[in-house]
Amino acid sequence: MSILLHVCCAECLLGPLDDLQRGGLVGFFYNPNIHPLIEFRRRLKAVKVLAEQRGVEMLCDETYGLWEFLAGVDWRRRDDEGRGARCRACYRLRLQRAAEVAAERGLDAFSTTLLVSRHQMHDAVRQVGEEVARDTGVPFAYHDWRHLAERGHEEARRRSLYRQQYCGCVFSEYERYRDTGLHVYPPRRPGGAGPEG
Q1: What residue ranges define each of the domains in the chain, with the CATH number in brackets?
Q2: 3-state DSSP assignment of residue 112
Q3: What is residue 197's predicted lDDT score, i.e. its pLDDT?
Q4: Hey, which residues does 112 pair with through a beta bridge?
Q5: Does residue 15 contact residue 152 with C-beta atoms inside 8 Å?
Q6: Stated pTM of the model
């Protein structure tokens, strides 16, 4: 079966890649959710490097999608339900485009490496994928690849490929770092002395 695989990152692709390459695999990097721009470029580069190393046909939409992402999700909601609604809208944005590309290429089905991550809302990814399949007529190939996540992490480390620290969107970046002191300038010491004096 030929499959168009939406690829969120190199690390997640590495988990199921061996099995998928035995069939007809076309990768598709399309992630308008990834911010900021430098993060987007890091992930895109890692995917391209991996595709070249492993001989994977990889289609890449290199458009930085800030405006498309913000137009496609309700970013004004701040509660937990808002997170769920944002994530579902983000899944739909990416999976809809993946199904369209699969249809354009005449492939049998589409799927996504989002199904590798333990941090994604797995049931929501599946539900959105199935809804998109009904809307487009392109079957959604569901696989629970979470058991392969660690293999992908280890292989990415071994290959020195970029490994991201958050899902991708600015909201997940905030959730990841809000409780850390990472890159925060230390407070002044009593008496006006700076951190070094």
Answers
A1: 2-176 (3.40.50.620)
A2: strand
A3: 44
A4: 6
A5: yes
A6: 0.86
